[in-house]
Amino acid sequence: MLGTRLATPLLTAAGCGGTGRELEPHLDLTTLGAFTTRSLTLDASPGAPAPRLVETASGVLWNTGGQNPGLQGFLASELPWLAQRQVRVVVSLAGGTPGEYAELARRLGNAPGVWGLELNLATANREDHGRRFCDEAYHAGKAVAAVREALPRTLPVLAKLAPGPGLVDVAGVVARAGADAVVLVHGAPGLAFDPTTWRPALGTVAGTVSGPAVLAQALRCVWQVHAALPQLPVIGAGGVRSGFDVVQMLLSGARAVELGTALLREPAAPVRIAEELREELLRHGTTDLAGLIGAGHTTSRGEPR
Ligand SMILES: Cc1cc2nc3c(=O)[nH]c(=O)nc-3n(C[C@H](O)[C@H](O)[C@H](O)COP(=O)(O)O)c2cc1C
Fold first, then answer.
1. Domain ranges of the chain
2. Which intervals hold domain Dihydroorotate dehydrogenase catalytic (predicted)?
3. Is the per-residue pLDDT at 7 higher than 80?
4. In this predicted structure, what is the pLDDT of residue 262?
5. Which ligand 1 atom is at minimum distance from the Cα of 14?
């Protein structure tokens, strides 16, 4: 379903493309598969104390604390700007309860410009976000079912999950609850210290690691979920920064890919990566992107691995 409805397989990842305005000078947002917003809550949130992002050896450690303008602020000043430009918008939602997810979905479901909803069900920041995130399959399933029921029209519902030992089970639960796809992954829990103060480098103790450090982990998550649930569309996220990284995600089973940290340093990364992807395919004598999805799960003779 997703592969055919997206113009290209490259989306932005939640929280990494600002409001869209920041990216606009660098790329035509309508060429993206979709633009994903930062996670929205019902009420505006000031977020975590600074610093919220530090560089580590192979990625960033971050904790925004869920800073966002709240539903009203988003509807008043962010969504209209994106809708006017006909950008396909995936709105990321963060609720503390299934009822909060449902309320957000109800009020966004008919808003012009909303192409899909992504439910942030990840736990990586749990200790800092407190009740905002839920990991247990039970809560994740309830949140997806509540959103499905609340939606006034048919919209893609994506469930974004954090890596973890129960990932395949959670993916199965959210799929049965009505998710159209899972987004894997949100990043991994992490910690870094400030070399001068010897205190934790973020304003909170822990954060989430994103960027190249999590690519291999994300690929494995995509692979495992695709192997267990081959009918469930997967969108890969985590450390993608080249055309070959996209190929790896597709071979593992992803139908599309979200770009996050890559945008922070290089806002035009989707343009370069799309070009590299075309070159990768040409080098391998194919233009059949769809043929790559899950192809890593079979041998060159087409037998299952
Ligand atoms: C600064 C920053 C803010 C983020 N904010 C959100 C967010 O609001 N909601 C969410 O679901 N994920 C958020 N993420 C996670 C990304 O969407 C993505 O899943 C993760 O960073 C892994 O992809 P990447 O390695 O390409 O960045 C954020 C990541 C970063 C670096």
1. 2-297
2. 2-281
3. no
4. 98
5. 17
Distance of CA 72 from the midpoint of ligand 1 (Å): 22
Residues 239 and 261 sit within 8 Å (Cβ to Cβ):
yes
Ligand 1 atom with the smallest distance to the CA of 214 is 25
pLDDT (average), residues 263-289: 95
Instruction: Output the CA 215–ligand 1 centroid distance in Å.
Output: 13
Ligand 1 atom with least separation from CA of 258: 26
CA dihedral of residues 82, 87, 93, 98 (deg, nearest 10): 120
More confident position, 174 or 126: 174
Tokens matching residue 25: 């000078």
CA distance 294 to 226: 7
pLDDT of 5 > 80? The answer is no
Domain 2-297 fold: TIM Barrel (3.20.20)
Which residues line ligand 1 at a C-beta cut-off of 6 Å?
13-16, 38-39, 53, 60, 62, 64, 92, 120, 160, 186-187, 210-211, 214, 237-240, 259-262
